[in-house]
Amino acid sequence: MKEAKEKKNPEISVSITISTWGAFAVYVITGLFLIFGFHVVRNKYSVDLISDPTLTLRLLWIIEFPIVVIIYSLFRRNPEKCSYFRAVGRSLVGLIAGALINALGAVSLGAPIGMQSLSKTIHWSFLMSVFTVVPATAVLGASWIDWHRIFASLKPIGIIEHMLLVPAYGAIIGGWFGAWPMPLDWERPWQEWPICVCYGAIGGYIGGQMVSLLTLLSEHKNLKLA
Amino acid sequence: MTTAAMTCTRLTIFTVAGILLQIIGLSIFVFGFFPVKPTLSGVSGSESYRDPFCDSSLISNESELHHPEKLRLLYQELSGISSKYDRLILMVIDGLPAEFVLGKDGKPPEKVLKESMPYTQSLLANGDAIGYHAKAAPPTVTMPRLKAMVSGAIGGFLDVAFNFNTQALLDDNILGQFFRIGWKMVMLGDETWLKLFPGLFMRHDGVSSFFVKDTVQVDRNVSRHLPDELNSDDWNLLILHYLGLDHVGHTGGRNSPLMPAKLKEMDDIVRTMHLRAMMDRSHDQGQTLLIIVSDHGMTENGNHGGSSYEETDSLMLFIGLNSNISDYASATNNVAFQVDLAPTLALLFGVPIPKNNVGVLVPGTLCSLRDFEQLRALELNSWQLLRLMLAQIQSSSFPRVSCNCFLDGTCEGLDLDISECSGDKEKQLICLFRNAAALHGIWKSKKSTESSSTMEDFSRALDAYNTFLKTASEWLASKTTEKPVLLLGLGVSAMLLSCFICGTVFLSLFKEVYHEPKDRVCSLSNLLNLEEVFIFALLLILVISMGSSSMVEEEHYIWHFMVSTFHLLLLFKTAKSFKISKGMNILRDFKFGSIFSLLISGRLLRGWHQGGVNWTYLPDISKWLVQGGSGYVKWIQLISIILVIGLGLYTLFRTGSNRKGVRILAFGFSTCGFLVLLHVGRYQDELSTGFGATVTVKVIYYLLSISSIGASLVLPWSALNKDKSFLAEVGDCLYLIGSAYILCWCLLQQLLQQPINSGPILLLLLQILAILCLSSSDFQVNEWVEITALYYMGMAGHFALGNSNTLATIDVAGAFIGISSHSTILSGILMFMITYASPMLFLLSLVMYIGANLRNHSNSTISTHRETSLGQILKLKLGFPCLVPLCINSILLTAYTVVLLLMRNHLFVWSVFSPKYLYVCATTLCTYIGVCIVAATVTYTFYVTTFLRSNRTRHNNS
User: Which residues cross the membrane (chain A) (predicted)?
Assistant: First the structure.
C-alpha cells in the first residue's frame, strides 16, 4: 500500500533521503542543543525556568531554532527548485505562524491572558513552534496536501516525514499532559504557567523522538527480513 | 446478539428499575453517612455535679424540684461555684469575621475597620474586654452555628439542608437550662431563634433574613426595642441578633462601602449596652455579662458556608469579665472554638453543661474565680465530657472503677502514679483524666493541711485538666463521624447494582445501533475513534480525580480543560476530512465557524469566574467588569438579553415552517424578553424589593411557564404539513418545542442570575446552537458522543456560572426574586434552578437535538422501513439521549459515593468531600428531572403525531 502511494507522489524520490541512523544523528544534535540551551541559561545567565521563565524560554528557542532550521532545510522537498535559503526563509515564516497557532491553542485550553503572562506565552509558543511547525515548514513548504496527509490523516511516507510527525505530536501531547499538575494545591513554583507545560512539551518531544526511532528501527528490521 | 431483541418497553422498565434502585441506595447511604441524631438523649440535671462513676441513683429528690428557684439554688449549692453574674446579654452579629475586630496574626485590624469601632477597641485596649477567634465548624451557615453555640455539639452535616426549614432544637442546650432555672429571656433579631426555641422567650421581635438586599431596616427593627429593654429589669437573658452585617457582605463583599458604617452602628450599640446596662447596675448585687459573638465569618465576596479561614473565623468577645488583662495583644490574640461558648456560659451562670457538649471552658474566662472554683469548673466540664465518652466507648474496653476512687486513691487495677499517657486513644483519655483527678485530689488534701506548695500543685492540676479537656474534646468531635456499616454497605451495593444495570442497558442499545449488519464492515478503528476514546478517558479521569481533595476543590479546571480539548479534537477531525480540492464550500466554513465559536465561547466562559478555592484571587472577567463600574455590567446584561431574544427569534423562524403556533410562540417569547428587559432596567438597582418588581417577575414566571408548557402540549396537535414524512414532521415539532424550552430557560436565568452571569448564559446558548449546527451538518460523530459532549459542556457551564464545590457559592439572593412571602419550597426551587442553570439548559437542549436529528436523517435511516413500530423508533431515537446522561451520572455518583466512603476519616471530609457530595446528589436530581422532561416531551409528541396521522389516513380513506 505504501509503495503504491510512493509511486503516486513522484516528488518524494527527488528529495534527499535519510537513513535511520541519520534520523538518530538529527535527534541527537537537536537534543544536544536543547541541553546546551539549558546549560547557557544556567551558567551564563544563572537563571532557570522557574526563576525567569521568559528569559529561559527565549534563549531556548533562539538557540534551538537555527539548528533545527539548518538541519531540516537539508531535507527540503524538491531541492532543485527550492534553494537552501528559501527553505530557511520559509521556516522563519513557519516559526511565526506556528507560534500563533500554538499560542491560540494554549489560550483556548485555558492559558492565562494578561499582561504579566503575555511574554511567557509568546516565548513558550515560539519554542513549541520550533518543536512542531518549523521543521515541517523547512521540509514541506506550503504544500497543503502534504501537510494534510501528514498531520491530519497521520499518514507519513518515508523517514523524514515520520521525523516531522512523531516528535511534533509528542511535544503537543506532552504539553497537554504537562498542564495537569497546574490546578493542584501543592504550592510548588513550577506549577505556574508555562513551566510545567514546558517541561511536559520537552519531555514529549524527546519521547516522540525515541518512539519514532524505535518504530523506524523495527520497520527497518522488518524490511530487512522481508 | 441476544440482547438486540430488547424492546422499548423492556428497555424502559430496566432503566426505571435501575433508577429507582439508585434512588433507594442513595437515600440509604445519605441517612447512614450523615449523622442526624445526637449521641445522648435527655437533659443534664443535678447528676452532672456528681462523679460519673458514682451511682446516680443517690439523687432521688430531683423530681420534686419543679420549682425553678429551688432548682437554681440546688445547682448553685452542688456546683460550689459562686455566680457573679445574674444577667447576660448575648449579642450575635451575623457574619462578622473576628478579623474585623481582633485583627489577624497578632496585627490589629485594618485602620478603617478599627476606626469604625472606637468603643469596642477602647474596651479591648483597657482590658475591659477579651476577644477570641472562635473557630466555627463547617457548614458555616447560621442555623447550625446557632445550634452549636447553644448546645456545644457539632451538629450533623445535613443541618444545611434544613437551614431554610428551621425546626425546634430538642437537644439539651444552654437556653433550655436557663429556662429551667426560671430565667426570663428576651430575643430581638433573626427569627431563626424563635423557630429553634418556640415558646422560650418572654418577649421577642423576630426579623426575617428574607430580604438579603435590605441592610438597614433589619437592624433598625432590632435596635428600636433596645432602650426599653435596657431600662427594664425583668429579664435575665437578652439576645440580640443583628443580620445587617451579613446582608452587607452578601451584597457587597468584605470591602463593601457600607461595611464601616455598619460596624460603627454595631459599635454604638455596644457602647449603649455597656454604659447603660453594665455601668449603671454595677452597684447592685449581681452583674451583667455582655458577650458579642458572630455565628460565622465571610469570604472576600461576602459568602459563607465553607470551611476556609475567612468563613470559620468567628468572634467571641466577653465584656465585663473583670479579668486582669492589661495589654491589647493579650486581649485579642486568643483562640477558642465556637462550641466552647456553651460550657463557659453554663459554668459562669451555674447551670449544668448540656449533655452533648464537646466544647471546653474558654480559658481566660475563669480568672475572676477563686482557685478551688476554677478547678471545680474544670472538673465539672471533665465529668460531662467523660459521660459523653462513656456512652461511646464499649464498656469492655473501659475499666470498672468505683465512685470517687480517683480522689480517694482506692481504684482497683489502676496505679495511681502520675504517668505519661500512651496507648490507644480511649486508654489515653482515661489516663489523662485519672492524672487530672489525682492532681486535683492532691491539691485538695494539701490545701487543707499546708499552704506552702499549693500554687505549684494548683497549676499542675489546672494543666492536667486542660490537657484532658482538649484531648477529649478533639476525640469527641472526631467521633461524630462514626458510621453504621450496614446501611452504608447496603446503599453502596444498591448503587453499584443500579450502575451495572444502567451500563448493561446502554451497552445493549449500543450494540444494537452500531452492530447492525450493514454497519458491520466498519473496522475496530472506526468503531472506537479518537473522540470516543477521549470521552471514555475523560470519564475515567473524572472518577480518579474525585479522590483528591484539591482536585475536588478545583474541579472546574478539569471540565474546562477537557471540554476545550474535545472541541480541539473536533477541529482536528474537521481538518482531517477537509479536502482542498473540493474548494471552500459553505458547509465546511459553517463547521469551522461553529467549532471556533465553541472554542472562543468556551474560553470566555472559563475566564468569566475564577472559581474553586485556591485561586479565587486571580483576575477574571467578572472582577474586571465589576471594577470597571456597574455601568459595564448593566450594558453586558442588556446586550445579552437582547441577543438572547434575537437568537431565540432567529432559531424559531429558521425552522422554515410558517405555522401560527410559531408566531404565537415568538410573540410570547418576545413579550417575556421585553418584560425581563424592563425588570432589569428598572428594578434591579433598587436594593429593596418593591411591589412593582415582584408583580413583573411573577408575570414573567407565568408567561414563561405558559409558553414552554403550552408549546410542548399544543404544538404536536398543530402539525398540518401533509407532504412531509412522519419523522420529519415529528422532528420539526420537537425542534420547535426544544427551542421553546431552552429559550424560556435562558430568559428565566437572565432574570434570576446575578447581573454578571448574563454574559455566560448567552455564551451557553451560543454553544448549544453551535453544537446543534455541527451535528446537523453531516458531522461524523456518533450520537452518543455528541450527547455526552452536551452533558460535559453543561457541567463546564455550571462552573462557568461561578459555582464551585463549596456551599458558599450558592446564590441565595436570587432565590427570593418575585416571591412576596417566605416560602421554603419556592425559594428552594428557585435556588436549585439558579445553581443548576447550565446542566438543565443542556439537558433541555436534548429535545432540540432529537428534533434536529430527526429532521436531518428522516429520509435516510428508519423511514425506509415502514413496518418499524413506534416503540422501535422511540427506542432508537430516545434511547441514547435518556440513557447517556443517566449512565454518566450513575457512574459519577457511584464512584463518588465509594470515594466518600473511603475518605470518611480524611481531614477534609466535612469541608471538601461532603459539600461535593451534596452537589453530586443535586446533579443527580437535576439529571432525573431533565431526562424525565425530555422523555415525556418526545414520547408525547410521537404519540400525538401518530394519532393525528392515523386519523388523517382514516379520514382520507373514508
Answer: 12-38, 58-75, 87-110, 122-145, 157-180, 192-217
